[in-house]
Structures
1.
Amino acid sequence: METTHKYRVLIGKPGLDGHDRGAKFIARALRDAGFEVVYTGIRRSPEEIAAAAIQEDVDAVGLSSLSGAHIRLFPAVVEALRKAGAQDIPVLGGGVIPEEDIVTLKAAGIVEIFTPGTPIDKIISAYREACEKKSSV
Amino acid sequence: MAKHPKLAEWEKNELAKSLSRFPERKEKFTNHGGEEILRLAAPENIDDAYLENLAFPGQYPYTRGVQPTMYRGRLWTMRQYAGFSSAAESNKRYRFLLEQGTTGLSVAFDLPTQIGYDSDDPMSVGEVGKVGVAIDSLADMETLFDQIPLDKVSTSMTINSPAAILLAMYVAVGEKQGVAPENIKGTIQNDVLKEYVARGTYIFPPKPSLRLITNIFQWCSQKTPAFNTISISGYHIREAGSTAVQEVAFTLANGCTYVQTALDAGLELDVFARRLAFFFNASSDLLEEVAKFRAARRLWARLMTERFGAKNPASLMLRFHTQTAGNTLTAQQIDNNIVRVTIQALAAVLGGTQSLHTNSKDEAHSLPTEASVRTALRTQQILAHESGVADTIDPLAGSYYIEALTDRIEREALALIDKIEESGGVVKCIEEGFIQRQIENAAYQYQLEIERGERIIVGMNRFQIQEDKKPPLLRVDPEVEKTQVAKLAEVKNNRNNEKVAALLTRLETAAQGSGNLMPIIYDSVKEYATLGEICNVMRKVFGEYKDRG
Amino acid sequence: MTIDRLLEGLKQRDPRAIGRAITLVENGDESAQAILSSLDEDLISQAIILGITGPPGAGKSTLTNGIISELRQSRKRIGIIAIDPSSPISGGAILGDRIRMMQHATDRDVVMRSMATRGRLGGLCATAGAAVRIMSSCGCSTIIIETVGVGQSEMDIIRLADITLLVLAPGLGDDIQAMKAGLLEVADILVVNKADCKGADILAMDLETVSRQEGATNQARVSMTVATENKGITELLERIAEVDSEHRDSGEREKRRRGAHDQEVLDWCLEILRPRLLAEITKRDLPLLGDPRLKAKEILEEQ
Ligand SMILES: Nc1nc2c(ncn2[C@@H]2O[C@H](COP(=O)(O)OP(=O)(O)OP(=O)(O)O)[C@@H](O)[C@H]2O)c(=O)[nH]1
Ligand SMILES: [Mg+2]
């Protein structure tokens, strides 16, 4: 039988920030690059995002936040996934994120952080790489 | 050469009247050589088309501006949006700005406040004080405006779903300072419709939200007649990625919806319409932006006359605040942003704005530092005092290009407004996702052009350099959340809790009915009922809006 | 996850295992067979499968959300499969139905899965069918399948369902006429959602008339709901229960399950045969002349 693997990713916005232009752009660009994108919209709690990622069995989770709350919320999603036994699902993030926070976030287990101006091709490759890595284990 | 009789007539009527009430800033405006600067340039041959489409400043359809003397009479209000962390910190920033020559305040609230959660709500975790100041109760508002006389400054508040509550608090602070409500000046944003399509800080579904807005119109028309009850905003629609035409169309369509709702509630058009204000984006396409502002002004005057039969000139004038486009700022080579902001601010001034916020160069990284805020303000001051563009009125009028573009934007925006109307109106189009999809498609297209390098963004996708110097950052102290939660607990301890409980019950009953909720909200905030408590009562009665994504 | 641990996880109704099992089956992984043969056939046969279809924006997801809330009050475990189209160009998809149901995201007894059509002819039915079985085997007594009703593929999905709801709303244009031939006929219940909006009563009357014209074979009746306010949902669920028991008594349910079963087997046959046949055709390097249909017959007869 033919196998038809497709990468599935979840794109969501934790916290209260409603600026979803970036998240929607990434979602569409990933779709146009052949990904199946579960879009969960704005104002989600870390627990909701983690639960959805597990049910949807996604290969990666992408988060976006522009309010400055990333420092609390991104690690909270990683933690919620870990608690649910899904630490193998990689988490990527983007937004207005100062450099020193990137170090902190990476230390907290976020595999990649994108800041304004990162070319979309680079973002797509990072998602592809994260998905590949996950499905190979 | 003899003056055209129409011009002479305008000078004799509108201009003279305005000059007698508000003299111009200078007795004589001159250039470097000492020659007098022309107040208003007009064509030699004033024909019907000119009178119909342009007319003179302060004359219907207001294409050339809403006042007869424009910036020769008074400069635009330089209003810098600011606010972060605690009320005390923000209060310091406001006083700094006032010392620096700012002429109006503009308050940014944090997201929990904008979405109606107290700082101790589980939903607020990580967000307290982040993008603006946290306000839980009247106590915070008192701190925020400490030593700022509310009869002297005018304050603009970016608050939408809970606008009624913050407005009530503001008026209450004024009263405590001894300022009568009728002397309170300022604006609340209070534009929920654009929250559903562009900004995301909605709480309730459209119907009860529109009711609250109408309640505010009515209450203010009696209590705070000098206060602008709404700032109908295209700014965020544009930031979400719309085109200039869409910005005008969706904003004015929202405006018409508010007008219709208020009329349906029995309010008198010429009483509330004069207190409607607008808020637009100034992006980098200088000429298109100038044309956009002029087109919006003309279209609104025509819609108000033709669709609603407004008579009072004050009801027809589109008065607007402008902010330079945040989404055009780059994180790379941030000094370039000062140049971008200058071009955008110039567009706003050439387009006849009533007030202006200029963004700071470091906003693509974090909250602006004091130094960059100062430069942003200086940009406006240079435009006002050095560039000379404020010394003559509507200087781009009559340019073939500008007039053609003004016509085109008006025409296309009107077509889009009609389409929304035909499809069942704004609320329906929001629920169906029609408006959101249009914006999204425009945003996607624009971004793809940047990605492909078809659209050049200097320093970002062309002319890049290796940069390693990090800009100085302003950070919100993470302790703010704790302090704020403690302060809230203290307020709850010290107030009369029985009174508060009784007031909240009264509010619930009132919300189930159809009366005006403002008086009871006003009574509640004065007893230190919190923003979260009031919003939760209304959530219970009205339900919550869910996004379609 | 090893296959043993996966099967154990399915027994425990572990959300990770359920999600992963659906993925493996959807991708046609070699472990699919082991997964599908481990399922609890009793539970599968008892579950009720609801199809929800209708034009874009009619309120299908909102209504599904309301049905979930109502069923959760009686502590029923529910499965939801939401299907969105894949882009024919990139093969990717945006799956957005979850947004309206996020309030149930952390409820372990609401098992939800978004699926893309992946452009396979007939294949969708096969994969969605497997997802239904995995969910019901994991204790979901009601499975809801949401799909946009504009094309042909949803007819496949409807075949899967025990009961189909067609959701309509006022102001969506001339859709009724367009649907008359298709969905309007096969749907068991016609739901007029957005009953709070202008034109709902007229739409309901139109639908009554249309279903009466269809005559006795069509049992369709009209229900009115306001999904955003959870109005009419209790009544709708009562109506669904009635139709279900009618179907059980009359043998209709058995008949549909049989039809769905046979169709699914056929889909799988075609799915499995397709690559084999393609290989065979390529191997033969047939001359361009001559009628393709005759050649096909020839190849099949030889197989
Ligand atoms: N007024 C009113 N609006 C409703 C009702 N039900 C849903 N809506 C609104 O209609 C819009 C579409 O609802 P969805 O549930 O996303 O519709 P859908 O059929 O699932 O849409 P697609 O999945 O895109 O095909 C949303 O804005 C809902 O809030 C209702 O009963 N009354
Ligand atoms: Mg849906």
Note: The mean pLDDT of chain B is 94.
2.
Amino acid sequence: MATCYPPCAVPGSAAGRARVARSPHIPGCFAYAGLNLTCSMSDEPRLPLGEPAPDCLLPNGRYLHELRGQPVLLAFAPEEWNPAHAHQSTIFTQLLGAFDAGSSAPEAVVSCWHSLSCHGPVAAQFGVAGQRALLLLDEQGRLRWQTTIRPGHELRTGQVLAALEALRPDAPAPCAAAGEAAAGAALAPAGGGLSRRTFVTATLATAALLLLVGAAEAAGPVSPTETQPPMPAPEAATVPVTLTINGEAHRLEVEPRVVLLDALRENLHLTGTKKGCDHGQCGACTVHLDGHSALSCLTLAVMSEGRKITTIEGLAQGETLHPMQAAFVKHDAFQCGYCTPGQIMAATALVQDKQRRSAAEIREAMSGNLCRCAAYPNIIAAIQEIQTA
Amino acid sequence: MHPFTYQRATTPAQAVAAVAPAPGAAFVAGGTSQLDLMKEDVLRPSLLVDVTALPLTTISALNGGLRLGAGVSNTAAALHPEVAARYPAVSEALLAGASTQIRNMASLGGNPLQRTRCPYFRDPAQACNKREPGSGCAALQGINKVHALFGASNSCVATHPSDLAVALAALDAQVQVTGPNGPRTIAFPDLHRLPGDTPQQDTTLAHGELITSIDLPAFTGRSHYLKVRERASYAFALVSCAVALEMEGQKIRRARVALGGVAHKPWRVPAAEALLAGKKPSEKLFRAAAEAAFADAKPLEHNAYKIPMGRNLMERALLETSGLQPLQGPAGTAFAASVGGVSGE
Ligand SMILES: Cc1cc2nc3c(=O)[nH]c(=O)nc-3n(C[C@H](O)[C@H](O)[C@H](O)COP(=O)(O)OP(=O)(O)OC[C@H]3O[C@@H](n4cnc5c(N)ncnc54)[C@H](O)[C@@H]3O)c2cc1C
Ligand code: SF4
Ligand code: FES
Ligand code: FES
């Protein structure tokens, strides 16, 4: 019944707009492959499953219809970081991680989510009005799966992988019916011999494109078809907080649930401190609190008031690197550099006591800082140089 | 993370008064368990009461023992010279746990109250009676590799993850709490409970009860903590063992042994302790004690490996504590506590 899915309309065409405008709302609740995940109707994007997606201009200057022939995953998130969406970055980090883990097609991953928007005309075209949402289009540009990530909730990457899996050639035909039935079909648990990991790898290696949309707003999108009232994020009370960072007092208004890491990065734009796991497991977010190393991802900003906070930005004296920074450069103690600010903050806190540590002791003391590039021997060498200096 | 209101308490009474009447309220100290689980959407308190400003951050002498304030950091406690010298099991357990950063943040009051690391508990999409009473237990039929051998129920087979708690159970520490009904003292082995039909309740503390200190009784014997984990450092125990040994001449006067990673609480093994009392330390004796300790273990589908691992670990912990075998590193450090070494060398 392929005819029930006419090809995607040309950019801005009346046909495309009309189709979206006429679309019935998708059903409010459905079970996702084994998971009993309930979505309330008002939270759902309003583009019906099985319908061709409206066209739009993408951040890279291409039109969505040019991507036909491969599955496309559209991700919407607020343009501005908002503490009411405390998980927005985690979701996309996890998602990229999930794809990265099995993908040999890195060029397919466009990571520009910091400038995404779930407000505005492109979002409205897809029925997204302020919520974080993910939409999966098949090779023919038809909507095959969608989900909204409500404030305070996290996306389970497994759902996305399951949805991608359902796009494989031997998955149940999606055309049987639109709406709920299609949702069921698209999300049916995998059969067949391929494991999920193998299939996703294969899909990604050959075809899939993870495309994160939103900066399209700036690029001049096709005009909106139907503007829906934006879903305002629930307003939570903010509290005034004064943080003493690198010797300077910063006054800000944050919700109590904002962790120091997000306050540093998103409110104060001190982006040297990195977010890796966001759960205390990697050390990328290490800062000093009153001179001791601590994880800013598990410290509330409100709880940091009155404490002396030092971040990687506070180590250098003007243009002169901190000796530990210089030692890291000298010993080539990094590759991609993502873990490096956290490593350096942990290392500088460690050597403060002037104790001479063996390599084994350094390794043990630094075990909270993971390095995906495994620069460990060089990190140890840098620290050893400083403690013997 | 769900929105909540935040209060900073400056006295224990204030903290209790804020939490006790509010069913959705919780204390927060280092936040390393509490905030992590709030980010996972496992916990959704409506009010967080910060207890880090309470005057509970000192370590002082008490009746020949030590009083450790609930607000003392794991690092400060582990490196305290009196703790390291007189209660090495405590320092070893602390230093073999988590990472430098987390130990700097974590508090002695919060550590024993951290929640289980059962992966199903941490995933709100899974059935879990501990997180959502009545929803079932996904671990029973799921991957139960890190789950309990002892004292579990059909409602929950989770283990308690704290290293410190195992050492404190072996040393018969006392927990001082204050609450809506005033102060009381809890013997450490009675702080945690078995899951029964109410696994949502980890401890015997009432809502709003605040730990003010952990008291280590006078102790002149030897103590030691040993931990097996999946990587050399920065991982929770698969199985661990704390031993407190008091000698009389050549013979063991009293032995106390607690196992970690095997039950919903630190697991004391009275049968093995009785077997050790009055005997001369030997490899054979320790083997027999370890056999006795695991005699009534009830493995699940994926965790039977913990029985031989735990037996060997307990035997070794006894050998090392008694001096029949050398410690693997300086007493009171992570090196002494880590089976397989910590350095990856
Ligand atoms: C990546 C990682 C690895 C870890 N590895 C280990 C490990 O190997 N071994 C180990 O033992 N632990 C480990 N931990 C756990 C960590 O040690 C604990 O989370 C920490 O000790 C808890 O202390 P806290 O002060 O941060 O408690 P919080 O997170 O602030 O609180 C924990 C609980 O205790 C309650 N609470 C806090 N203080 C009091 C008080 N005074 N009275 C009453 N209730 C109170 C809180 O309400 C909450 O329910 C790890 C944690 C992470 C994130
Ligand atoms: S073992 Fe306990 S914590 Fe784990 S899923 Fe079952 S009920 Fe939940
Ligand atoms: S971001 Fe990984 S430990 Fe904080
Ligand atoms: S340098 Fe790449 S993660 Fe450490």
Note: Chain B has twelve helices and twelve strands.
3.
Amino acid sequence: MQEGMIERSHPFRQNGISLISQLQQIQQEHGWLPEPELRRLSAATGEPLIEIYRVATFYKSFSLAPRGRHRVTACCGTACHVRGSAGVTREISKLLGVKPGGTSADGRYSLETVNCLGACALAPLVVVDGEYHGNITPAGTRKLLKKITGPEAGNGAAAER
Amino acid sequence: MEALQARLKTPADLERYRAAIKAKQETITHRLSVCGGTGCAGGGSARIRDYLQDYLARRGLSARVALRFTGCLGLCERGPLVIVSPGEIFYQKVTAADAAEIVDQTVLKGELVERLLYTDPLNGEKYVSANEIPFLKKQSRFLLGDNWRLDPASIEDYLGLGGYAVLAGCLDGLNGAEIIARLKASRLRGRGGAGFPTGIKWAEGREAPGDQKYIICNADEGDPGAFMDRSLMEGNPHSVLEGLIIGGYAIGAGEGIVFVRAEYPTAVKNIRLAIARAEEVGLLGEDILGSGFDFRVSVSVGAGAFVSGETSALIRAVEGQVGEPRQKPPHLAQQGLWKKPTVVNNVETLANVPLILRLGTESYSGIGTASSKGTKIFSLVGKVNNTGLVEVPLGMTLREIIDDIGGGIKGGKRFKAVQTGGPSGGCLPASLLDLPTDYEALSEAGSMMGSGGMIVMDEETCMVDLARYFLAFLKEESCGACFSCREGIARMLEMVEAITRGESSPGQLELLEELAAVVKEASMCGLGQTASNPVLSTLRYFREEYLAHLVDRRCPAGVCRDLISFRIEAGICNGCGACRKSCPAGAVEGKKKEPHRIAAALCTRCGICLETCRYGAVLKE
Ligand SMILES: Cc1cc2nc3c(=O)[nH]c(=O)nc-3n(C[C@H](O)[C@H](O)[C@H](O)COP(=O)(O)O)c2cc1C
Ligand code: FES
């Protein structure tokens, strides 16, 4: 092992708090990781900005862009997959006009996919603004989203960011 | 419960405290356990709890009726669940509107609320007691069984059930080597995936030179479609913590870390609470129970990366770095967290430790098969009637689990395959249903025990699509450090995708097998080494299905969108117009009361027309 090259562990624990925890704190506060905050973190810890971005882009839970006011999360875990989550996700994506992982240009919606929410009995599962909805079918997506889209929403109402 | 006046300083203090808790519990006449597991919480069980709490207060019953919000009770399919004891009366599909009736009828009058009882879908029988329901009766719930008997936020509940007695016994009468000898004798194997003997791992940790050592609980649970560890962490966090403290004592570690994924906020909250409570009463911290053993535990929250569940990657993640695996040796027992000797164990492995020491190694190793001892929790999901967590003795056959406990396939369809071991595992066909769930038997069949995911599939699941699904998952999750894993998985995915589109040719299957073998051989960590299993096992058992895609350009399960089409049977369609109105692509045309047609060029094959038609006029071909 090239000592010192990849085993640069201790600098990551500035003030006893790991870089990941610090990023989690920033994300908690802002809902995402704004660049000025990351620059500030770099200056405060002496950690190169590129390292911070390396960690921020490696882990799935970090977002480098602001997320929508309404958050839709479709589970694409194995149990949900075998019960048709791919079709459900596709319909939601069309209805909101947002690709999985994306946010609409007007900042209204974002659509995320996750692997298993631990409620596989209710598969396929969709979470709308923190509320769990089970046994969703492609045909059921329009009704499901009405609460956030309003009754008049059509296909791909908002253009993608 | 009155707050404890001072930290417990001796094992006798602990027993006195336990006796006080039990005495206090005697004044309780009834207990209502409301399931707070994810499935039930998704169904609104928190509101049921609030209503119950409110109603109990209004009826002046709060002092003698205890209300608990528990971890997963297992039968998620029928949630929200409420268990009333005594009698272990099992109420299912409960709503907030039922709360008052449960209190008035069952608690006050001792009468049943018939409509909330469980009816078995197979034999049509009604069951009253949780212990009689076939789904639960056929299990051996050593680890999960206490979930409904305790409030995860209450250390008193855990102590009332005899918790931490094993820890006290270890600190008082056994040294680390003796504990390890018992674990070795129990033949416990790791539940995180690889099945490595825990006693041997602990011995390596203990023998490693150095006075600063760590023990880490791996609660990253990355298998998409499995939630065993989550349920233990949420439902019985003290059992995991007790195992971790015993492990720390056995190997000589002063610090324990629970690495838990951020996607499990309740598990994070409950384990944090358990640690804080254990510190308060003196079961963590300095000089635990006067033994001279100091031990602290902290929680590290992951940021979401499947590969970070691999031990060396996990250590980097705990250190705050990018969670990529590294080459071993040096082994973690020599060089782990902050380069100190470190032992990493899975949640369920640790929960087994107090159980083994309580039951005694002999009774424990009486459970299971020759090479696989104890019980295993499986997350039984997919196209099965009773979805949920099942804990069974290792060695129970797949058939017993799926048919007897799971109640067979949903909707009277035919069983096609069961996938075990998550993304590292494989798909097993009907001909292997009598295979015992034993580490070796599953591996020989081309699958894996893994962490306990068990996904049941019927004739409407396409095996090629499933292989594609796992490859897509693994491509996303590969850290990219090894060429074979990074490129190999991506190329396998491309090949399988081409097959699902009907754009492949017969020689491709052999090429796929060859590539799969290379990825297996040439990758550094477990992710790459097992990434080929979903492809290889489906090729081994479901080759005809691949050939149907390749040669006939047909997806027999009707899943792969490029190979299916929808058609309206004019003889059945009565022109009600429901499909026309529901079609998001505007692909259905036809006049009212006249047979409709689907314009193939516009159709996106979403299947909504098929789902909407009440007359069975829409056909998928
Ligand atoms: C890619 C990958 C992901 C893993 N994810 C997990 C996980 O989420 N949880 C877990 O306990 N073990 C996971 N493991 C297995 C661990 O490497 C390790 O074997 C286990 O935590 C050791 O504990 P045990 O001996 O108690 O099973 C993973 C392994 C690999 C290769
Ligand atoms: S796979 Fe979707 S909740 Fe488990």
Note: The mean pLDDT of chain A is 85.
4.
Amino acid sequence: MPVPDEVSAPFWEAAADGRLVLARCSRCETFVHPPEPVCPHCHHTDPRFAFEPAPTTGVVRSWTVIRQSFLPGFNVPFTLLDVALDGLDDLRLIGRLAPEGREPPEHIGEPVHVVFEVPAGGGPAVPSFVLSEP
Amino acid sequence: MTGFAARSKVAVVGCAQSPIVKHHDRPLGALAVDVAREAIADAGLTVADVDGFTTSALLPTAGDHPVVDGVSTVSANWLAANLGADPSYVTGFQGYGQLPGAVALAVNALMSGAADHVLVHRALHNPAGRYHGSAQQQARGAAQWTMPQGYFGPIAMIGLPTNEYFQRYGATREDLGAVVVEARKNGARLPWSHWHGSPLDLDEYLAAPLLADPICRFDCDRPVDGVAAFVLTTAERARDLPNRPVYVTAYAGAQPSRHRLPLHWPLDDIAEVGAATARQLWERSGLGADDVDLPQVYDGFSPFVWFWLEALGYCPVGEAHRFVSGGGIDSDVLGALPALSGGGALGSGRMHGVPQMLECYLQLAGRAGDRQREGARVGIACQASPHFGGAVMYSSEVM
Ligand SMILES: [Zn+2]
């Protein structure tokens, strides 16, 4: 389960409320995921990231079905999606396809939206994705 | 930036390699000292002549394994001390593309005069237990963004861009299998290989269960214990040594340019930065893809073969799977591109770039025995992903 730290705590608090927030550099206003000590976009050394509401829809860029997990606490198989959030071209999230047991996508480019799930092994809610109905 | 001053100024003059096995019955460090002595003797030198040591000591593994110098890893400092050398330059490469990185450090040391003879070694250890397994329950730091979702380890990492390639370009498991079958065919012919005498056919490949779609265990090189060492010196000194020198024409290293989640390698990042890696190699060498007889592409995961073939320009982006399936890299076909003739990692074991460098050296030095490929003049030894690793070009002639 995630261990929130000084920087990431707002992300996990919002996730517990079912809200997706992402770090935004207060210097160049770029959404950055994950946040780093130096802004990877403008390279400011004091980026003062603010966690702001992020788009909750996106498209599938790739996926893989995990059939053997190398971590404890995961029921296999499950599908992981590589998702580009709408309007944030160069930012990707990786999350599970919900609900458990759902068949993987058929094509790249399928629309998805964010949901929050408590993992099988317990712990805080994490962002996952549901395939949007066309 | 001024021109690359090291072209053909440094040569590989000798080498040695241990057998590549699942587990050696001796500590890795003891094996490394023996292999280093053998390589130095092969170059016609003594330990007293060797004053430079470079390596990349990265174990590496994703699992929870302790790192102990001389046992699970062998640093350049450890090796120099335990050989009883009196070195003037000892260092390690910290990035990926470990062997090209260590060779580049050796070239720079020889060009600067910091050392006269440099031993480059690579020692790989296969820890007992699951190589990638982790009992970790808590995800701190960078891992908190991916581990809670179950995104963990290199097999999931390579699953995403490989499926992206499948979906975009219509590649199939049969196409990926063709890569593995070629590597294992060549590896089966190498007496030192973990897979000696053990080729794989496509039916066996297709019967393997998937680990992370579309990756199965045959797409992943097998973790092994093994050590290789190469001796490098200046082209001038190389003239007086017993083996035919193999010149370092150029080296290149990749610099990932986009900020990503840990272990996230989108296909476009691989292609974009891979093309830049190749450009650097062509610019520094003054040569192009058509001048290369032996591009030994990296294959720690089978799809890397496609990514490198495309990065180096042997196929348009999205075409490498058809090229390989059509016999394009068949080492037994005259006129094909023998891109895995040295068995690669899939056909030798997880030696992290050693099979590629060794094949370049043996073929270009005329020391490949009954596998000798007549007329081979230029080779490239690649390692890791084209957007994360590196490559070294070698030549049998001063270019
Ligand atoms: Zn910024």
Note: Residues 98 and 130 of chain A are 5 Å apart (CA to CA).
